[in-house]
Amino acid sequence: MKILIAFSSKTGNTQKVAEAIQNALPGSELYHVETAPNPDKFDLIFMGFWVDKGTADEKAQEYIQKIKHKSVALFGTLGAYPDSQHAHDSLKKVAELLPDSQVIDRYLCQGAIDPKLIDWMSGLPAEHPHAPDEERRKRWNDAANHPDETDCQKAKDWANSVVKKWQDLKDLGHKSILLTSLI
To answer: In whole numbers, what is the pLDDT of the chain averaged over residues?
Structure first.
């Protein structure tokens, strides 16, 4: 089984999660999307991104376009809380970028926000939808400490569970083919 871990990372958050996944999956191949090989050569792809405007960042989207008829596990980082509606909606939008592939599972963790983005948002007028308020500043402060060791351990555990799910699905497919051929 050949496993690819391809990721896009702007501030290092998603790269940190990608490296944790690689630690959990010896023999897997890790690449930034800008240097990642053709995904056709792999059996299982872990696709990493950072959330930008409610979906995968542009570089990740460019690589996702190359993935066809594959088993994929999506992982990413975002400044919002990973159990928020925004996180849920973002994962759904990224999965929709893979209509020809089987998305086995998804994992998001909070990641520190680019300081340039915080500076930009801090200068917005109070009536702007992204202007800082008490709740938003708290979320920014919480995000500054992520991904942490707990997030990385969760990513490792998740990666192992994805491989097991993938193997179970593959075994189920083989049994289905066998049953069909016996009928």
So the answer is: 91
